[in-house]
């Protein structure tokens, strides 16, 4: 009887020694080429100047409403209200306040501060209407965002 020679089957393995280097290079590439999306605000706002400015210490309690004129002519020419890039109507402010309060820890909900960032040339009637809606929603801490008057005082 003839004996057949058995072939030695060698295992071929892929080396993973350079895998961490490849992953690092890909990560670095995407970090360098990625762009950070800026806050897409649909309104143009030129804040008014003030002689005295106070800084707020607890920034986590601040929720910002923007009142200004639309950048896009398709949205009209009248002043509009916006929060985080989303346009709001006066009637939606109460709902917005409750949503913002619910985003805070329960112990801080009554301390929420609404920062109004209004254009210098927006009619005061709209700002008064916004303040009235904020009062109805029990948001009584309202600040206005301004820029310090050059010369300081």
Brief overview:
By secondary structure, the chain is α/β, with parallel strands linked by helices. 25% of the residues lie in helices and 20% in strands.
Order of helices and strands: HEEEEEHEHEE
Number of helices: 3
CA(first)-CA(last) distance: 112 Å
- Report the mean per-residue pLDDT as an integer: 83
Total number of β-strand segments?
8
Radius of gyration: 29 Å
How much beta, percentage-wise? 15-25%
Q: How much helical structure, as a percent, in the residues?
A: 10-25%
Biggest sheet details: 6 strands, mixed
Structural class: alpha/beta
- What form results from the Cα inertia axes? elongated
Are there runs of 5+ residues with pLDDT below 50, and where? none
Structural overview:
By secondary structure, the protein is of the alpha/beta class. Helix content is 25%, strand content 20%. The chain has helices at residues 19-33, 93-102, 124-136; strands at 43-44, 49-50, 62-70, 80-83, 86-88, 113-118, 142-144, 147-148. A hairpin with a 2-residue loop joins strand 4 and strand 5 (86-88). It is elongated. The N and C termini lie far apart (112 Å). The relative contact order is 0.18.
Strand-helix topology:
Blueprint: H1 19-33, E1 43-44, E2 49-50, E3 62-70, E4 80-83, E5 86-88, H2 93-102, E6 113-118, H3 124-136, E7 142-144, E8 147-148
Parallel strand pairs: 2-8, 3-6, 6-7
Antiparallel strand pairs: 1-3, 3-4, 4-5
